[in-house]
Every structure is written in structure tokens, then in C-alpha cells.
Amino acid sequence: MLAIADPDLDNGPRTDRSATLRMCAVTREVRPIDQLIRFVVAPSGEVIADLKRKLPGRGMWVSASRAMVMEAVRRHQFRKGFKRDVRVSPALAVDTEALLVQSSIDALAIAAKAGQVISGFGKVEDALKSGPARTSVGALIHAADGAMDGIRKLDAMVRQNGGINDESNPFPVVTALTSEQLDLALGRSNVIHAALLAGPASKTFLSRSQLLVRYRMADDDKTAGHATKNSPIPTVRTRTT
Fold it and tell me: What is d(CA 137, CA 117) in angstroms, rounded to the nearest whole number?
């Protein structure tokens, strides 16, 4: 299933481009690559996260979980896997989360430039009223530090259109970013609510925000490979920042 001689490392981003499964260096379990993070050694000798899986050199894969990255650091797994002396920051897990946050912010900014984002409570409300939620709006975004009243009202509008409670095809609701981070992505102030329209840039943001939430919430080996309960892709109710 994994056509590599060394189970701890891949053969580089180009030679293994078609691979869809990798082994977590910590748990030794094989998972889809969307549930893992690739790490490489920079020219400086420092281990860094390769979120886009494009950096040169052989890579080590760890379950997309803050706890698993911390465990890899604690066990000196990177030195063992790369079979060389490498520099591993004690804050690697925190630094990786910061990269995941920035990746989500960048993806949302690109979606906004592509005209696939509506921001502001009133505009989102109007979009939901204009027709079935699934045809006019593809996902809701709420600031993690936003007031619950507005969140409940917009969620209720989607629910009335058969959205959030539809277990067979759940409606994405993303609360992974703070208002300040949404401001940064959308280039305006005090963004609490936004909506995604259909498009490839929106799909990229949803994928990246899902990875961010998985990283924050997958706190052990069992949850590291699965989305949280009641969490469609990527319906997120976490209040972490």
C-alpha cells in the first residue's frame, strides 16, 4: 500500500505526488494524507511543517493533531526518523498551529478576491433569505469570539432550509477564526459573520479550516484520524483560537 523503502520518510514531494496514504511517525498508523501533516528539514537544519506538501527533500508525516506533534517532539521522533541531527523547536506544535491559522486566513482572502465571500450580518441574512441555503450560500463563517445571538439566528435560518440538521449532507459552519483574523482575511473591520459562495477558492478554504480544526481538536490517537462528532466538513463549533 505504501511503496517506500523507509516507512518513516517519503521520497520527496515529486516522486510521491500520487500517494494518498502515509504512516504517522508517532502512532505508526496509516492514514489519508489529508489527516496528516508533512514535516521536512529546512536548509538551516530546522524541522518545519510543509502544509502544502511541496517543499523539497524527504518528508516525515505526523497525524494532524497538536498532541501528536508535541509527542513527536518529546520522543525525539524527528531525529530518529530523519536519521540525522536536526533542530526541533520546543514550540513546534504551536508554530505549526500558527501556520495552519495563516493558511486558512490566506485561503479566505483568496476566496474573497474571487468574489466567493459575503461578509456582514445583514448581507449574509439577505443571502440566506434570497433562496434555499444550499443554492445561494455554501457555508457560514462565524467569528470564534462572536456573540451567540447572531450566530444562533443565522444558524436557525439555515436549519429552516434543511441545512445544519441534515446528517446525510450537513451544512458547513466554520468558527475556527477570530474576528481579528477574519478582519485580516477580508480587509475590513469587525467581521463577525460571513458566508461562502460556491467556487474552487471556497473549497480550498473549507479544506484548510478543516485541517486547522482537526489539529486543535484531535487530542489523541483515536480522534486524530476522524472529524469530531457533529462536525461535517468542516462544521466547527470550537471556540479555541
Answer: 9
Total domains in the fold of the chain = 2
Centroid of chain to Cα 168 = 22
Percent of the chain with pLDDT over 90: 69
- ∠ CA 192-186-102, nearest 5°, is 95
220 and 120 in a common domain: yes
**Domain containing residue 40: CATH number:** 3.30.1230.10
Kindly state whether residue 140 falls inside one of the protein's structural domains.
yes
Domain membership of residue 232 (yes or no) is no
Write out pLDDT tens, residues 37-73.
999 999 999 999 999 999 999 999 999 999 999 999 9
End-to-end CA distance of the chain: 37
How far is it, in rounded angstroms, from Cα 157 to Cα 148? Answer: 14
- DSSP-derived letter for residue 33 is G
Residue 133 has pLDDT above 60, yes or no: no
C-alpha cell at 174: 466554520
DSSP percent split of the chain into helix, strand, coil, nearest 5: 40, 15, 45
pTM for this predicted structure: 0.83
Q: Residue 39 in 3-state DSSP?
A: strand
What is the average pLDDT across 161-178?
75
Q: What does the alpha-carbon distance between residue 232 and residue 112 come to, in Å, rounded to a whole number? A: 22
Range of the domain at 55: 21-90
DSSP output for 79-112: HHHHTS--B--TTHHHHHHHHHHHHHHHHHHHHH
Q: What is the pLDDT of residue 55?
A: 95
Q: Are 209 and 140 in contact (CB under 8 A)?
A: no
